[in-house]
Amino acid sequence: MPLPVEVLIIGAGNRGQIYSFFAKDFPERMKVVGVADCRQVARQNLQMKYSVADCNVFDDWRGAAARVKFADAVVIATPDRQHKEPAVAFAEKGYHILLEKPMAVTVDDCKEIVAACMKHNVILSVCHVLRYSPAVLKVKELLSQGVIGEVVHIQHLEPVGFYHFAHSFVRGNWRNEQESTFSLLAKSCHDIDIINSLIGKRCIKVSSFGSLSHFTKENKPQGAASRCLNCAVEQSCPYSAKKFYLEGVKNGHKGWPISTICEGADVDIESVTKALCEGPYGRCVYECDNDVVTHQVVNMEFEGGVTAAFTMVAFTEKLCDRNMTIYGTKGELSSEGQHPVKVFDFLTQTKKEYPLDYSILQQTQLTGHGGADYYLMDSFIQAVAENNPSLIMTGPEETLASHLLVFDAERARRESRIIYCNQTE
Question: What is the DSSP letter of 238?
């Protein structure tokens, strides 16, 4: 029986912990042998969970990179602006790499990561998890079968969710471009990647529009305080941190997003109250240092005249339940969240549903994104075990192409003009 793939976790936060679950669920296939994180509690939690030797626990990834190679692969789940340096360093050491999206926050850094991985012949899998979701896999299968003929246009909506946006992009880690990156790259590079993959042709030109709405000081209600716990108008505010977190834990909810605000402490009423009194998640949404856009549209034209329109919006009931309609010459395909994919046939004027298989969710803790987290890890671990990069759907060159499209789209928004892709002006 082959030995499990030995993995080093760089960044023991939410995503690093989730990817490590594969070792718990399938210990015969993956073993966590090292962890690096600047936060003592985070790295100790992972160390205890996987019985990692003290000599393989680091408060800085550089300590692990300085060592002689001691694992087969590395999972890099550091903050967005801290992707490039460890990715290049571990590629040079010969580690295969699972890299959280986005690859990096600049074009040059993305290209440097790809060049390092190709030079040192290591597998790179970027965590565009939605490519591995049952819904997207079914859509791709149906398109390859020609059920709607030639694709003419794709309409794609990402409803972020009003409380998710307030948590992550107003109060949280992705609120500020200087600390993280712009919204389209941080939140929606998944979606642009899916569109690019499904069309399978080169994007020629792109335009984009969007802005930051509502979450500004000018919209702060009269009488509102700087923090929700002592705010006189909190009860009438849909973005109340007290409603999001404190009432949630009182009702027994201890998972995301509440778990992310109590780092280093058990999730209970006392720790949540302390976090709301002292930390960033208790702030009024109208007094944060957020500057990322709340809504954005991207219009794309691909070779052969195929077009696509993408919309990201914060102010939605649904939470990241992507809604996609693909218009073809022989039919129309629609996919929403984790529901069956529907196809309307122009010839027979009938509609058929294609159910999705979620049976794997009964065997793993990696249930996020409709099981896509599992399929991502499954393909990466298998690819490393067999040294077979063809098993990776989100490898270096294809992922770089979709990232470059995201950068072009954001440039189009900032400059208020059409950008012709892959051209330097």
Answer: T
Question: pLDDT tens digits for 228-262?
Answer: 999 999 999 999 999 999 999 999 888 889 988 98
Tokens at 206, concatenated: 């792109």
Query: CA torsion angle for 402, 406, 408, 409 (degrees, to 10)?
Result: 130
The count of residues in the chain is: 425
Judge whether 301 and 182 are in contact, CB under 8 Å.
no
Residue carrying structure tokens 């696509």: 308
> Distance (Å, rounded) from C-alpha 376 to C-alpha 19?
9
Nearest to 174 by CA among 36, 13, 367, 20: 13
Tell me the whole-structure pTM to 2 decimals: 0.94
pLDDT score at 260:
87
Are residues 371 and 358 in contact, defined by beta-carbon separation less than 8 angstroms?
yes
What is the pLDDT at residue 368? 87
Tell me the C-alpha distance between 83 and 77, whole Å.
Answer: 8
What are the tokens at 404?
């470059």
List Cα–Cα distances, 283 to 57, 231, 280, in angstroms: 34, 10, 6
User: Which residue from 287, 314, 306, 130 is spatially nearest to 210, judged by alpha carbons?
Assistant: 314
Task: Identify the segments of the chain with pLDDT beneath 70.
Answer: 264, 423-425
Cis peptide before 257 (omega within 30 of 0): yes
Read out DSSP for 135-157? HHHHHHHHHHTTTT-SEEEEEEE
How far is residue 359's CA from residue 357's CA, in Å, rounded to a whole number?
A: 6
**Residue 125 one-letter amino acid:** S
* Closest CA relative to residue 4, chosen from 23, 36, 30, 26: 30
What span, in angstroms and rounded, lies between the C-alpha atoms of 313 and 295? Answer: 4
Q: What residues pair up with 297 in beta bridges, in sequence order?
A: 209, 311
